[in-house]
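Escalated from tier 1: calcium ion holo job.
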Amino acid sequence: MVAEDGTAGYGECWGPIAGNDRVVEEVIAPLLVGENALATGRLWESVHFKLRWAYHSFAPYSALSGVDIALWDLKGKLLGLPVSELLGGAFRETVPAYATGHYFRKVETLEEQISAVLEEARGHLASGFKALKLKIGLGRTLGWGTEADIALVRALREEVGSGVPLMIDANCAYDPSEALRVGRAAGEVGVEWFEEPLPPDDLDGYARLSSKLDVPIAAGESWALLSGFHEVFRRGAVSIAQPDVCSAGGITEVKRIADLAHALNVPCIPHVWGTPIALAASLQVLAALPGHVLLEYDRSDNPVREALFDKSLSVRSDGTVAVPKTPGLGLEVDRERLESLRSSR
Ligand code: CA
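Tier 2 regenerated the structure:
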């Protein structure tokens, strides 16, 4: 997003380039040319209306999200203020981060899997992280079921001790009885939250699971819009909401979702993935949210993230990341480097 004076705002859309790029270029961009970049709320409504009208139930809200983030970055730069100030002011100067990683490897035995995960965990702790998220539920392609997941969770808890907050994330892998089994075992070893145990469209399943388990159920990266989260909250589906700024509707909509969550006393801890643009945008939102917050910090391989990385977003020795105070998202994007990453089509 570029203003008349050449100031550029950057955003990030969740998901594949295919689709997002064409929607942004052909549907959204014509709506925004000549518009006032400061009018983030009005422009959000206008784009949302057009997408819903054009795509009905398949509206690509990731495209809207990336554009909205770019508008906020641009608005902050034009006004000379960080986005957190524009969202009502920062509650904090740093946000504690947790390391996401610990994916399943293609190894022969569960012992090898466990040992690889434990080694990775030690690395995250050595890098300064004070909290970790473990991936589970992905081992069924390797022939492993919930017992393997439970063994993995127990091994990690034993390795790091009781002082390190642990989260587990099943990426929608389970049916209700499997989720119940894993959730009960997770409760025994002390887990901060159990993320995406079920497919996202099974909201009743989420609600039943939440009522049966002591461990808090978290989810949100697969849901979009305030209206979507309203339904999630109405059904009592989760104890922690995790909207993603790059897919749930951008900074505009995630702030609204967080405000609704706050009104209902549901913690909102946004899901974060992707490049430093997503990281910086999420940090600005997290800075402006009341209550206890945590920054998801993806530690898996991502060449785009590495290429665009800004050292100011590094995790410090106390396990936190500083909230950028420079205007907009507070991220310097190297335009040449970004161009060099462009996909060809
Ligand atoms: Ca997740």
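The beta strands are 94-100, 132-135, 166-169, 193-195, 217-219, 240-241, 295-298, 320-322.
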